[in-house]
Amino acid sequence: MAGKVVTVTSGKGGVGKTTSTANLGMGLARLGKKVVMIDADIGLRNLDIVMGLENRIVYDLVDVVEGRAKVKQAMIRHKQFPDLYLIPAAQTRDKSAVSPSDMVQLCNELRREFDFILIDSPAGIERGFRNAMAPADDILIVTNPEVSAVRDADRVIGLIEAENKGPARLILNRVKIELVRKGEMMSADDVTDILGIKLIGIVPDDEGVVSASNSGEPVVLSDKSRSGQAYRDIVRRLTGEDVPFAPLEQSGGLLAKIGRLFGGR
């Protein structure tokens, strides 16, 4: 069976998209899946750092596309998980160095060997976003429960529909459960009502995520972390398991105040 291409995207930077991609990749590898991750954020690569692989880069995505390296030469194998690989982004080129058809061709080659191909898409809406969408079978949008992030996610959903892709699913990141309970932060129900897409995971706010990412050991590996457990649940849902959601989605009561900021599609 051919591998599945999962593109992880967001409407804006800083919502935890690259961190989510790293956690999903490691989580899938932990389940015994063969995984390759592609950093499609040309000029702004970060996935190598979050994965702890930054010192081992020789070739990158643009080297493969332009024929200076074979795919296998650019793939960096993770030391802890021998079936987990990264193809890093080019640091010194712009996004026009790669086209949507280049990404489709690369992913079709990788589908023969891997169970999952995860693409870390650039935030926003320019060429790099279209590159990351072109080969996608499954699209995950990462957002925070903040009005500006949700509005940007709403915009991206429209663009995904315009590319005849999707429907996307939602990872709601950095949820402060106490604030949701007090009605001071949008709940998962609020956000999915606005965006009109299904939820695949709710990741609670966790200070340990940043330090884990900085050390190249994503939280999905920590059995004591609530956010790590949330990512493990998302991974199981990605593989087709029916995993119930933790009971923290009661409505935060902010929906009426926020609804007028969003035009219905």
**CATH level 4 superfamily:** P-loop containing nucleotide triphosphate hydrolases
C-alpha geometry? globular
End-to-end CA span: 36 Å
CATH fold category name: Rossmann fold
Q: How many helical stretches? A: 12
Helix and strand succession? EHEHHHEEHEHEHEHHEHHH
SS-based class: alpha/beta
Quickly count the domains: 1
The helix content is: 25-40%
Major sheet: order of its strands?
A: 3-4-2-5-1-6-7-8
Radius of gyration over alpha carbons? 18 Å
Kindly state the number of beta strands: 8
Poorly predicted parts: 249-261
Task: Indicate the proportion of strand residues.
Answer: 15-25%
Please identify the top-level CATH class: Alpha Beta
CATH architecture: 3-Layer(aba) Sandwich
Task: Describe the sheet with the most strands.
Answer: 8 strands, mixed
Topology:
Layout: E1 4-9, H1 17-30, E2 35-39, H2 47-50, H3 61-65, H4 71-74, E3 76-77, E4 84-87, H5 100-111, E5 116-120, H6 127-133, E6 138-143, H7 147-162, E7 169-175, H8 177-182, H9 188-195, E8 198-204, H10 208-214, H11 226-238, H12 255-259
Parallel strand pairs: 1-5, 1-6, 2-4, 2-5, 6-7, 7-8
Antiparallel strand pairs: 3-4
Helix pairs in contact: 1-11, 5-6
